[in-house]
Amino acid sequence: MTRALEGITVVAVEQAVAAPYTSSRLADAGARVIKVERPEGDFARNYDELVQGQSAYFVWLNRGKESICLDLTLEEDRAVLDAMVANADVFIQNLKPGSISKLGFGSADLRKRFPRLITCDISGFGDVGVYSHLKAYDLIVQAETGLCAITGTAHGPARVGVSVCDISAGMTALNSILQALFKRERTGEGASIQVSLFDAIADWMNVPVLQYDYSKYHTARAGVNHPSLAPYGAYRCADGKDVIFSVQNDREWVNFCEKFLQEPDLTRRSGFADNMERLRNRGVLDKTITAHFAQISSDEAMSQLEAAGLAYGRLNQIEDLSTHPHLRRVTVCTPGGDIDVIAPASIVNGERVPTFRPVPARGAHSEALRHEYGNLLQKQLDAASSAIGDAST
Fold first, then answer.
1. Domains observed in the chain
2. Torsion of CA 206, 210, 212, 218, to 10 degrees
């Protein structure tokens, strides 16, 4: 099956999560992705050893790439990278702020040299501003953006359980690169893209910020409850299992009271008429709801909620997701053996179980890539020398 980005070459001087997320999705779409690693490799290779002796992060985010190890402090290795960039469509990097420019591969310079090139710089806080010089990782940005402040319970803040800032930045960069590729098809011009973890997740924080800016409303940490809608959360059933359900509008509130709680008068009771009133009186309302859930099993609760036309779900553990009947997986070859990973969300042309290229070992393609781009570099030098000779005659 032909992939949409076949024929596109991506060079990624990348590490950790955000940039590898972006380039992995480009590789999934058929692009040739050359991953440039330090001689010791991407440090994400050593985050853990829990997947057949390999890092879960690394095998998730690096399928379908070619790996070359370069020491960019050496002129000969910078020449190899330069030859790769000269023949690339996209250049991605997420090194420490300022590092790539010191090495001679800053986006502004590359765009002057290669007008069709799309460059993408991913950083913690961007290229300008008082924090732009700082290194930043996911938890730091979760804290800086206030995400931790609205995550957790009344007892204290918490980290979102996955690297949400990295993933958000990677998704944002991917979207911008795809837009730039589409625009280049029409104009012939590349683009310079900057994405920061801070900006990516700050955008996701618009609702609590807008609520504060215009009404001084403080989003409370609500545990496994929705901070802005009530009732919407997890409730313990008679069998000890938790069920989550949601009331999104007045119609669902009426159905919930009449068909699930069997208390139609509750919809007219003072303090429960609309969502804002229910939020203010959530403690009182929850006593009634909790008492009803405690009398029935989780299967009974879900059956009744479905009959009432309400959305519901289970408060699953990781082992429940691992065996979830709705979960799609794909098999990916890695240096440690085949592994089954969760499939990407998009289903294109009905292909529910796509096939992907392997995860590379550290430097697996170094020799071949050095040969390929060394030859290209030599041809370019020969052509330049020939042009000079022709001009002199």
1. 9-205+328-341+357-383 (3.40.50.10540), 232-314 (3.30.1540.10)
2. -50
